[in-house]
Amino acid sequence: QVQLVESGGGSVQAGGSLTLSCVVSGYIFGSGARGWFHQAPGSGREMVAAITSGGDSTVADSLRGRFTISRDDAKNTIYLQMNNLKPEDTGVYYCNADRGHGLGPSGLWGQGTQVTVSS
């Protein structure tokens, strides 16, 4: 059974840092692309960052310079390094895996990890 399991969330003060991890177990047919999505309270999920199987990455314009995505295929894990956190970064962060039709709603989701940033 394929699973994505996120960890690393928590409560931090503004300006702090967190590193989220997502371990992928099982084989996922697809491009190998992985991504992180953020769902703020009362909002939909928005892509934060994505990384291809070859390691090419992209980060949302508004988060560039603060967030970094990476992967360690030997550990079947992707990471999201979040620095200089702001209260608006609060929400649930979801890991997503392409299974042949791109990242997002057609991909495979983890259960999410909560991040709370206080001012």
Describe the structure.
This protein has 119 residues and is mostly beta strands. The chain is built from no helices and eleven strands. A hairpin with a 5-residue loop joins β4 and β5. The chain is globular, with a radius of gyration of 13 Å. The mean pLDDT is 96.
Short descriptors:
119 residues, mainly beta, seven-stranded mixed beta sheet, four-stranded antiparallel beta sheet, 11 strands, 50% strand
Class derived from helix and strand content: mainly beta
* Mean pLDDT across every amino acid position: 96
Low-confidence stretches: none
Morphology call: globular
Number of helical stretches of at least 4 residues? 0
Distance between the termini: 40 Å
Sum this structure up briefly.
This protein has strands at residues 3-7, 10-13, 18-25, 34-39, 45-51, 57-59, 67-72, 77-82, 91-97, 108-109, 113-118. Helices cover 0% and strands 50% of the residues.
